[in-house]
Design goal:
The chain is an alpha/beta fold. The protein has three helices and four strands; from the N terminus they run βαβαβαβ. It has a four-stranded parallel β-sheet with strand order 3-2-1-4. Helix 2 (57-65) links the parallel strand 2 and strand 3. The termini are far apart.
Length: 112
């Protein structure tokens, strides 16, 4: 079973400091739930995925520290120019293309 948690950085941390608070509480909860589900299915994996430029690397590192098996960052310069629906459609296409079985999300992105 392939599980994916869609995340978005909540707030930025000071340079060179990894802080799990870079993720919102709902994203942390979704990741924790996905990891618990993974433990019940031998061979299951948890992937954290974010759409955005290198500013999303800190949230992805935090997701790895919290138990994700792997991370993926969806990025193309056009992503910075589309609205939330465009980003959502891009993520949905990536999730479908990569063949995830279950999708977890947080409550909302920090920029709504």
């Amino acid at each position: 079973m392939n599980l994916v948690v869609l995340i978005r950085g909540w707030r930025r941390t000071p340079k060179s400091q990894l802080d799990v608070d870079v993720l919102g509480r709902h994203e942390r909860y979704a990741l924790k739930l996905a990891c618990r589900l993974r433990n019940g299915f031998p061979g299951a994996t948890v992937t954290a995925m974010a759409a955005g430029d290198e500013r999303e690397d800190d949230p992805l590192r935090a997701a790895m520290a919290l138990g994700a098996d792997r991370v993926r960052r969806l990025w193309d310069p056009i992503v910075s120019d589309v609205d939330a629906l465009g980003v959502a459609r891009s993520l949905a296409s990536a999730v479908q293309h990569l063949g995830f079985d279950v999708v977890f999300t947080g409550a909302r992105s920090p920029d709504d």
